[in-house]
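Sequence design from tokenized structure. All designs in this work follow the same two-part layout: the structure record, then the generated sequence. An example of the structure record is given first.
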């Protein structure tokens, strides 16, 4: 019996079957079942059955409300976001609250849950990162907000929970490391290495460069058009976890942009002859290079250069830092990086080097120097 969608199955007799939680008895879920000739018909009947079961009642189980909340988002969010939320529900929220009535969950319960996440969760059972915990609690709060708008459910008090965010310094290539990598890439001009060069000189994301095609480069006007991104996602239509690679629009409107090509990169790109519909990293119209493969190639390249380990995203941070060091205006930099505001650029991606800090401190010394 194959599965398509959340709790909707295709039977061997050709019909579709949907199931939903009617109640919990003896610590076990009791299900109701509906049937239809098509997936769409079954899905509509399933939503109606869930609504009828809990209409006018406060006795709604958390899992039922969470599934209704997730369903309400599917028409507005990207597939990657829905999969991310679904995984958080299955891994973190359902094990804790799936058998609880949503109106019985208190602020004390949420505080206990927060302490579990902070101290005992994760693969090593030593707690999750502050960023992960913030994401989980944000989804939990969103479900309660949805419940309060659609049912007579009170929102527990979240104000007593404060997640302290950790600051982890981002790895940035030094100027000398950047020169080494630049020389290696130019001496070994494969399409994959040219993709790394593009990221180093434009700051575009790894998924964006993997989705680039040669037609996205305007040699006449000297810009790269970024309007797609590539990522590997977990599929939601299989009982056995699987993944697939998709090319979709970027995560925000600000990520759709045109990036001017610097002169040295322009000269390198002009040397290449590929079909306009071909992927930039492969030169093929049908074969692509996914982000994970490009990440591995980057790791191998910096190892050959004698550069200490770095994540591919360090190229983006390095680009932003170099731009600040040469006096780039922040507004232009923010638009090139595809950020919604300059605050994101300043807070996350601008990391002045020690050399720049020393240079600025020396300016202060010159200003205050005692004249003899």
């Amino acid at each position: 019996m194959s599965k398509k969608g959340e709790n909707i199955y295709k039977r061997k007799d050709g019909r579709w079957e949907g199931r939903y939680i009617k109640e919990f008895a003896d610590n076990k879920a009791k299900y109701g079942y509906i049937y239809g000739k098509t997936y769409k018909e079954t899905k509509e009947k399933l939503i109606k059955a869930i609504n009828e079961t809990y209409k006018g009642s406060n006795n709604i189980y958390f899992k039922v409300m969470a599934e209704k909340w997730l369903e309400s988002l599917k028409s507005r969010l990207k597939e990657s976001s829905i999969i991310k939320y679904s995984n958080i529900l299955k891994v973190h929220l359902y094990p804790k609250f799936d058998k609880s009535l949503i109106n019985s969950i208190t602020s004390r319960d949420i505080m206990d849950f927060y302490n579990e996440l902070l101290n005992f969760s994760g693969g090593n059972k030593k707690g999750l990162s502050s960023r992960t915990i913030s994401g989980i609690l944000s989804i939990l709060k969103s479900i309660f907000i949805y419940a309060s708008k659609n049912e007579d459910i009170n929102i527990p008090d979240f104000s007593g929970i404060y997640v302290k965010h950790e600051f982890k310094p981002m790895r940035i290539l030094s100027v000398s490391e950047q020169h080494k990598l630049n020389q290696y890439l130019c001496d070994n001009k494969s399409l994959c290495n040219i993709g790394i060069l593009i990221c180093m000189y434009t700051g575009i994301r790894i998924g964006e460069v993997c989705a680039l095609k040669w037609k996205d480069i305007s040699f006449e006007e000297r810009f790269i058009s970024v309007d797609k991104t590539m990522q590997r996602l977990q599929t939601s239509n299989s009982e056995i976890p699987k993944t697939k690679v998709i090319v979709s629009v970027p995560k925000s409107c600000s990520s759709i942009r045109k990036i001017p090509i610097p002169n040295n990169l322009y000269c390198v790109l002009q040397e290449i002859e590929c079909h306009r519909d071909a992927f930039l990293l492969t030169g093929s119209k049908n074969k692509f290079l996914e982000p994970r493969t490009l990440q591995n190639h980057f790791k191998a390249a910096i190892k050959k250069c004698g550069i200490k380990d770095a994540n591919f995203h360090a190229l983006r941070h390095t680009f932003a830092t170099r731009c600040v060091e040469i006096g780039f205006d922040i507004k232009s930099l923010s638009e090139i990086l595809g950020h919604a505001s300059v605050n994101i650029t300043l807070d996350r991606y601008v990391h002045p080097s020690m050399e720049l800090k020393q240079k600025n401190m020396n300016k202060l010394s010159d200003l205050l120097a005692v004249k003899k």
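The chain has two domains: 8-150, 175-359. We note this feature because it recurs in several other targets discussed in the main text.
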